[in-house]
Each structure stands twice: as C-alpha cells, then as structure tokens.
Amino acid sequence: MTGMAIATPLSRTAAASLDGAGPVAGTGPAVRLTHVHKTFGRPGPAAPVLEDISLDIAPGEFVCLLGASGCGKSTLLNLVAGLDRPTQGSIEVPGGRPALMFQEHALLPWLTAGRNVELALRLRGVPRAERRAEAERLLEIVRLGGAHRKRVHELSGGMRQRVALARALAQAPKVLLMDEPFAALDAITRDVLHQELIRVWAGQGLSVVFVTHDVREAVHLAQRVVLLSSRPGRVAREWAVDVPQPRRTESAALAGLCKEITDQLRKEVSLHGRN
Fold first, then answer.
1. CATH number, position 216
2. Is 14 exposed, middle or buried (0-12, 13-18, 19+ CB in 10 A)?
3. Do residue 112 and residue 181 come from a single domain?
4. What is the mean pLDDT of the chain?
5. Cβ neighbours for 153, distance < 8 A, ≥ 6 positions apart
6. Count of Cβ atoms closer than 10 Å to residue 45 Cβ
7. Which sequence ranges are marked TM in the entry (predicted)?
8. What's the rounded Cα separation, in Å, for the pair 72 and 50?
9. Of 79, 98, 108, 200, which residue is least crowded by CB atoms under 10 Å?
10. Domain identity same for 137 and 214
C-alpha cells in the first residue's frame, strides 16, 4: 500500500476512556512529523527506510506503531527521540526531549534500582538532597516501593522493566517513547505490565508512542493504532480504538478489530521484500 491514509479521529469515548486520560482538546501536537524521509547506505546507493511520514501525536494520546519487521518502526522512534536526523522533512517535539525505553531494560548492573533512577534525576539537575526521596516516589508509582536498595540481578524481568519505566519518568518527559519494551517477557507478566503502563500513562498525563509487532498488544493499549507499510515505511492505515480501559481483547469489539488489523498487517508482510 503506497498511499497515506487519512487519520481517523478519536471519538470522545476513546479520548476519555480512563479517568480523563487522552488527547487534550485545543492544544497543539505533542509530536509532529511532517513529510519525514529517512535513507541509509552512504556512500553508495541510498536505501529508503521511511518515506513521506506525516503524523501528529496529541498531548495525552497513546499511539501504537505497528508493522512488519524492518519497516522502520524503531528508526522512526529514534528520529523522534533525537538519536538520529531525518534525511528530509521535520520533526517537532514542543515539550522537550522525550524519554525512551528500549526492549532491554539497559539498567546499570552495578547500581541499585534506586540509584539507576537517581542517575536520571542527577542528569536532569535535581539536587542531590532531593534525589533519594524522588527516586522512591517514582518507584512507588511503578509499584516497586521498598525496592530502592535491590540490585538489578535481584529483580525479575518485569521488575527490571518497571525500574526502567521509573527511570524514564525521572526525566520528567511529556512524551514517552517505548520500543517493544515487553517483548522479551512471558505472556502473564506482559499482561500485568500492560495494565501498569495504562495506569501510569493515565496518572502522569503522558503522550506515549509505543512500537510493537503484536496486534493484540497494540489493540490492548492504544487509543490509535498506526500501521506502517513494508519498506520503505509509510503510513498505510490508522484505526481509532474506541473501547474504554480496562479492555479485554477477547471481547467481540476488540476481537473484530484485531482480525481487521491482522489481515491488513499480513498484506503488508506479504509485500515485504518486494518493494
């Protein structure tokens, strides 16, 4: 699919689906991508990865980027994070640099959970005398109260990702970027962390851009699902997920949406490598 779909507006139900969480009316975008292109392969023939991506993320909105492996999802996230620059086009993040969570927790193993969070506070310029209390507050937010002194090797995979989330929150971001952060976890732990993430997102008023290749995960979490085409990645289609949180993906409404998105994703996967 080569054309760019027109965005489907979120309904009032989706926008207010969890204690008022959702896009903020009457404000500018938290993230704006305008005709973004990205190519790799210099010197030599340029390999297009992303082509003509235009996308707005509203303040307080939860958006999942979905697509086949190699379609440019992580590349797009890195561009928004400021880790790379687009070949063409522009990216605006008016609220300041986003926080980024990777698939691996990337915690420093020689530091405790609390010290990992404090490091982000230190880099942000929080005074030393305030860091301990703030780190404990952030660990409480992700339901790890009392874990400040625990070493990384003492934590389960899910707990490590919670510490990574607390460390991201320590950066006081308005936009949180997440690159398949739960992909390595077992299904039960992943489902638990989905609910924790929704709770934190609602409570902190964040805009979230979440990369996944899992349709069920996207529909479970997002207010809007954006499908990227096979390389070069373009916005192929968007869906508003018009179901209040908490959600059950086996419900008729979500099961039907999962099937529709899966069918479209399969079409994109079948095109992968032909373009």
1. 3.40.50.300
2. buried
3. no
4. 87
5. 109
6. 7
7. none
8. 6
9. 108
10. no
pLDDT digits (tens, 9 = 90+) for 182-220: 988 999 999 999 999 999 999 999 999 999 989 999 999
Tell me the two tokens of residue 56. 């707005």
Q: Provide the token pair at 158.
A: 């899910």
* Token duo for residue 14: 């989706």
State pLDDT tens for residues 101-121: 988 888 999 999 999 999 999
Same domain, 78 and 111: no
The answer to whether 228 and 67 have CB atoms below 8 angstroms apart is yes
pLDDT at 221: 95
Which of 141, 172, 203 finishes a domain? 172
The parent domain of residue 231 ranges over: 1-98+175-275
Domain identity same for 63 and 9? yes
Q: Which of 112, 147, 148 is nearest to 132 (CA)?
A: 148
Q: Partners of 210 in the beta sheet? A: 64, 178
Q: DSSP characters for 221-254?
A: H-SEEEEEPSSSB-EEEEEE---PSS--TTSHHH
Same domain, 158 and 257: no
For residue 211, give the nearest of 58, 65, 56 by alpha carbon: 65
Looking at the fold, whether 45 and 81 belong to one and the same domain comes out as yes
Instruction: For residue 86, name the pLDDT band (cuts at 50, 70, 90).
Output: very high
Specify whether 156 is located in the same domain as 221: no
Q: How far apart are CA 161 and CA 148, in angstroms?
A: 14
Q: Dihedral angle at the C-alpha atoms of 143, 175, 122, 193, nearest 10 degrees?
A: 20
Domain end among 147, 172, 197: 172
User: What is the tens place of the pLDDT at every residue in 141-193?
Assistant: 999 999 999 999 999 999 999 999 999 999 999 999 999 999 889 999 999 99
| pLDDT score recorded for residue 249 | 79
Q: Whose structure tokens read 């010197």?
A: 43
| Together in a domain, 186 and 94 | yes
